Amino acid sequence: MVDFDYYLAQFVDIHGRSKAKLVPGKHKEAIFGVGVGFAGFAIAGMGMSPHGQEFMAIGDRDAVRPVPWMPSTASVTCDGHVNGKPHPLDSRVIAKKALAKFREVTGLEFFSGLEPEFFLLKRGEEGAWQVATESESLDKPCYDFRHLSSVSDFLMELRAALGGADIDVYQIDHEDANGQFEMNFTYADGLRTADNLTYFKMAAQAIAKKHGMLCSFMPKPFAERSGSGLHMHMSAGKKFGDNAFEDAADPRGMSLSPLAYQFLGGLMAHAPGLTAIAAPCVNSYKRLVSRGSRSGATWAPVNIAWGDNNRTAFVRIPGGRLELRVPDASANPYLLTAAIIYAGLDGIERKLDPGQPCNENLYQLSLAELTARGIKRLPVSLPDALDVLEADDALCA
Question: In three state form, how does the secondary structure of the chain look?
Fold first, then answer.
């Protein structure tokens, strides 16, 4: 391990926000031994009281990464422990438990890829937040070179920081809303992908500030524009590069295996409860609408349906894998990974069928047409989603 002057003993709270202590290099072994102590009651979602034991963050030696925006500093991703045992409410511990269960049931590794969308903002002359890119007036600014170029210094510095952390960025683009961008990195096992997203958000926000901007992962900051999603791609295999979700002989023509269809059946059966974890804040439900975007599409799911390359559906099938489209950029990636695995495993264990695909524009179907196809709506608010989640035994076991 390369030596650094400082180490960030880092983990996330229930909201996916990074929490950390800065540890001088000469004390780094404590991170991997007894751990670094935190007052558990001060951390959202850990279920601890002010008079309880210490929350000890114990580092993962395979998750040490340089932090170039903090000279001679490295981030160490940690698991939370209490009384010498992994804390059951630590979201990374929860994800590891779910991944182990998937491995036990299927004999396979669960792989995922996340596509984070975000807005770059700056203060206007009167102090209000506005998009940071120049002359953003197009109704359809997606992929626009001018706007991509205007913040290229930030994007390239961010990509370099991710590359230094072994996060392989393969695409960067301007997205559907003014001032909105997406940076895609290579898929990995589910835990590594969640770690990668956490590092990405830390890096993006810190480097944007350096460039005089705010990087916002708010799901829907502008009412007239599409919101920021966190589309999740899923597959499984014995090792990286294998894909047990793919079957070229699929009679439905989706290139999906029976295992993938059963996993998809689980996602469909638990869609309402999953939404509470994938879209975890009040603002999330302003994104999950079918109308109102100046570009002509919100790109967000509203109904529980799946289809071949259908970007209006809950799940899109881009060929040999599944893409869940309901998550947004405010989701905790560890809890999201765990919830998806438990929903999918329920589908595998009960051999659920996802029903027929819908390859129509769901935004244009009437309520009567949706009802005739047996298509139900996703929850329309966070309280509605939480009520369903609380009653979902597979997700709340």
Answer: CCCCCEEEEEEECCCCCEEEEEEEHHHHHHHHCCCEEECHHHCCCCCCCCCCCCEEEEEEEEEEEECCCCCCEEEEEEEEEECCEECCCCHHHHHHHHHHHHHHHHCCEEEEEEEEEEEEEEECCCCCEEECCCCCCCCCCCCCHHHHHHCHHHHHHHHHHHHHCCCCEEEEEECCCCCEEEEEECCEEHHHHHHHHHHHHHHHHHHHHHCCCEEECCCCCCCCCCCCEEEEEEEEECCECECCCECCCCCCCCCECHHHHHHHHHHHHCHHHHHHHHCCCCCHHHHCCCCCCCCCCCCCCCECCEEECCCCCCEEECCCCEEECCCECCCCHHHHHHHHHHHHHHHHHCCCCCCCCCCCCHHHCCHHHHHHCCCCECCCCHHHHHHHHHCCCCCCC
Is pTM beyond 0.85? Reply is yes
pLDDT at residue 135, as a whole number: 64
- State residue 242's pLDDT score: 95
312-327 pLDDT, tens digit per residue, is: 999 999 989 999 999 9
